[in-house]
Amino acid sequence: MKKLHHHHRTFTAVLFFILFSLTSVFWGSTGGGAFAQGIDFFHGTWEEALELARQQEKIIFVDAYAVWCGPCKRMAKTVFTDPEVGAFYNEHFINMKLDMEQGEGLKFRQKYPVSAFPTLFYIDYTGEVVQQVKGFQKSDAFIALGEKALSKVDRSKQYAEAYEKGNRDPELIYKYVKALNQAGKPSLKIANDYLRTQTDLTTPFNLRFIYEATTEADSRIFDLFVQYRDRIAFLVGGDEVNERIYEACTHTVEKAISFRTEELLKEAKTKMKKYYPQKAKAFGLKADMDFYKATGDQKRYLKASKKYAKHIIWENAAALDALAKTIAVYLPHDVKAMKLALKISARSAEVGESYMYYYTYANLLLQAGLKDKALETAQQALKMAEEISPNAKAMVEALIRKIHNS
């Protein structure tokens, strides 16, 4: 009977382990994962968040909001639910939402004053504010804010001294590599030196190490990462693996621009197409735009911009507006460039139906010397602006005066 009971307990333990492991596949190590959408917010107290951040050596992201705040609701609905935002923030931060007008939020704002909503705080586990920003942020800008916050905290120094003295404890090396990555410092040599000493790269620790050490697509570690991709996804989640591929390929494009090496650009695009095909087209066109703009190849820049506008952001008014402005600033005297900028801006106004997009379009028309069309467009913008605010109306009226005086 005892033997049977022992086998029953063993079977139960094994079954629990299997169920727990399968849960990890679906939800990932951060509580996000394949079925979750966006940021996974911590629901404990501020003191508990500080302790968790201390244990994991992370920064705390705090969405300081008010329930009546429109931009706060918009970020919660459209940005915090973005899978790419979630993958990035769940990996790098302890995330909290605090209502500044009740409960924990009232205590929080005694130490961290808030004058506008939302205010986005990035606070180290020491309690020090690393960065704070007011107002609504789009997904790309929000991820960029997180990257900036990470780069401001350099914990690598606390591991560098021990490492340089010969300490090769795997946990120390892992933390050292992670700290270097967060600070935007090179870590590949240290990571490669460690991995070359390992006879089994498939242990959970080494798989997590490879995940953390994957920073560039043009590296041996990236090749190891994709070789063990399924096993790594089992540990950290599929979304996180895709995000790491995207980040590594992006860093290789940045290196291509820095060294003006088209081969690196091609390598980044090829690896995105192979390992993250869902995002490959948009990634490739954006990479081409950035590379050819930086290297002064205007013809290929415009070709990539045209494709990017038509095939990737044709329904996104804000992205179209930003691209039109960029082209006009970069090539203000190029006839083909201005023609493309006008086409993209016109589409932005059509899709967005906002005075701001008509305002941009009118400005670009004036820049291109099309005064009558510029005036007509500015008057459309004025009708919309009158319904928004006195400041919006005044801004458009100033443009109309500028058009009359040109």
Strand order of the largest sheet: 2-1-3-4
CATH topology description of the domain at 46-152? Glutaredoxin
Let me know the CATH homologous superfamily of the domain at 46-152. Answer: Glutaredoxin
Order of helices and strands: HHEHHEHEEHHHHHHHHHHHHHHHH
- Determine and state the CATH class of the domain at 46-152: Alpha Beta
Query: Radius of gyration, rounded?
Result: 25 Å
Shape-level CATH architecture of the domain at 46-152: 3-Layer(aba) Sandwich
Structural class computed from helices and strand pairing: alpha+beta
Number of strands: 4
Low-confidence stretches: 1-36
* Main sheet: strands, sense, barrel: 4 strands, mixed
| Percent in helix | 55-70%
Helical element count? Answer: 21
Beta strand %: 5-15%
Distance between the termini: 98 Å
Mean pLDDT: 91
What is the global morphology?
A: globular
Structure description:
By secondary structure, the chain is of the alpha+beta class. Among the domains are: 46-152, Glutaredoxin, CATH 3.40.30.10; 315-406, Tetratricopeptide repeat domain (Serine Threonine Protein Phosphatase 5, Tetratricopeptide repeat, Alpha Horseshoe), CATH 1.25.40. Helix content is 68%, strand content 6%. The chain has 21 helices and four strands. Helix 1 (2-27) packs across helix 12 (229-236), helix 17 packs antiparallel against helix 18 and helix 20 packs antiparallel against helix 21 (390-405). The model is unreliable at 1-36 (pLDDT under 50).
